[in-house]
């Protein structure tokens, strides 16, 4: 699940799970919203996304390029910070006037499909307006839900351990593919003892890390219809995290809260932090050190449980211009010039054509590309965990309750009970 450049990770995760209740969305499938047409045959479509100003500047350049190559299609744009984006989207959608095409993420596919909001793009693929070949590492399947094509990936990322390289060097730690959670615990202690810094920023609310741990043990955070783990499983995870804070292996959550929106890693409260690989750019701009990507620890020395996540482009079922929308999506994911403009802003390009068109020269982005190439060559990538309707609300609850636990506002047993109660409600609605 990758987010906007410059958006703080915990804010992103919290926003991703905020309740997005919308009543009556997509009650009909008639074309009653979206773009417009003109007498000379020119069509205007509306495109919305979230992100920072830098992303907006890059996307606007790609739109200029698209309009030059498709003079009969005009694109009206709108972008917001992550939380504001979904607020505005829901307001527009509930009023029957959503954007024709918009940035999306896997946690929202079933939610909006259930509300009859998303266009199945398979018909446009059959008509030749959208190509679904040429994607990297099976990403063409990423936006398929229940046989429907509801999103097309624009980039990829995967979970990683971002490390402060000088700190790890002083501690004498060299993480390698296949290292175990026992190795990780030992590494955290060495960072603490040899550098005076906590080993990691903390693992309380990192839902996607817990998902990988569960997958390593034959489970997953979500199944098609609900949660894929038990209260006993979560009790063990949060108990270990709580002990890690008390022993100084993980950063003090109160100090982490005080320095937000800066991360604990770049603020030098911790020697590492689990997050998405392409967020390394954020630490480099925020901190004073040199940062690198380390492999995810494993249970058995082999299986990481990892998958590639992605931002996607989805289309509104209400659009009056499905052909033009499909052509726009096709351009954004396949055109090589788009890749040279966007770089890794939305992750490593999803298609081979764009991946080969943009080869980064700076150390940070080169490291991101190398990391994902290592995952592919090592054969550790697996199909993504299902995200049922309500997954976004569960994600927000996991983050919020995990933070409350870390700050001492809840006991482990109370936190586990609260999470399962909220998730049961979210997944049954």
TrEMBL record:
Pfam families: SBP_bac_1 (PF01547). Transmembrane segments: none annotated. It comes from the Bacteria. InterPro entries: Bact_solute-bd_prot1, SBP, TAT_signal. This is Extracellular solute-binding protein. The lineage of its organism: Bacteria, Bacillati, Actinomycetota, Actinomycetes, Catenulisporales.
């Amino acid at each position: 699940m990758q987010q906007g450049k410059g958006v703080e990770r915990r804010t992103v995760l919290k926003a991703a799970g905020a309740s997005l209740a919308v009543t009556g969305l997509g009650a009909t499938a008639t074309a009653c919203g979206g773009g417009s047409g003109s007498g000379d045959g020119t069509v205007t479509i509306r495109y919305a996304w979230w992100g920072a100003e830098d992303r907006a500047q890059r996307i606007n350049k790609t739109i200029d390029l698209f309009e030059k190559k498709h003079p009969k299609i005009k694109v009206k744009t709108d972008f917001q910070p992550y939380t504001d984006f979904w607020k505005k989207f829901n307001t527009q959608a509930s009023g029957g006037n959503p954007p024709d095409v918009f940035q999306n993420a896997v946690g929202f596919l079933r939610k909006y499909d259930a509300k009859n909001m998303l266009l199945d793009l398979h018909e446009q693929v059959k008509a030749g307006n959208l190509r679904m070949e040429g994607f990297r590492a099976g990403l063409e399947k990423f936006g398929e839900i229940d046989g429907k094509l509801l999103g097309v990936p624009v980039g990829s990322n995967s979970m990683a351990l971002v490390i402060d390289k000088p700190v790890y060097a002083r501690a004498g730690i060299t993480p390698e593919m296949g290292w175990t959670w026992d190795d990780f615990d030992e590494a955290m202690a060495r960072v603490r003892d040899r550098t005076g810094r906590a080993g990691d920023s903390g693992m309380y609310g990192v839902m996607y890390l817990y998902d990988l741990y569960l997958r390593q043990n034959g489970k997953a955070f979500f199944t098609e219809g609900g949660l894929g783990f038990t209260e006993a499983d979560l009790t063990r995870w949060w108990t270990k995290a709580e002990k890690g804070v008390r022993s100084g292996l993980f950063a003090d959550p109160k100090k982490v809260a005080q320095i937000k929106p800066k991360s604990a890693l770049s603020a030098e409260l911790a020697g590492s932090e689990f997050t998405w690989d392409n967020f390394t750019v954020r630490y480099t701009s925020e901190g004073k050190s040199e940062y690198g990507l380390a492999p995810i620890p494993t249970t058995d020395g082999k299986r990481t449980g990892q998958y590639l996540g992605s931002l996607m482009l989805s289309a509104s079922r209400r659009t009056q211009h499905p052909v033009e929308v499909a052509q726009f999506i096709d351009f954004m994911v396949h055109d090589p010039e788009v890749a040279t403009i966007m770089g890794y802003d939305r992750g490593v390009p999803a298609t081979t054509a764009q991946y080969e068109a943009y080869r980064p020269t700076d150390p940070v982005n080169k490291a991101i590309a190398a990391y994902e190439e290592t995952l592919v060559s090592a054969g550790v990538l697996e199909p993504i965990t299902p995200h049922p309707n309500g997954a976004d609300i569960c994600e927000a609850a996991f983050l919020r309750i995990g933070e409350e636990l870390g700050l001492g506002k809840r006991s482990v047993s109370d936190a586990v009970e609260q999470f399962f109660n909220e998730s049961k409600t979210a997944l049954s609605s």
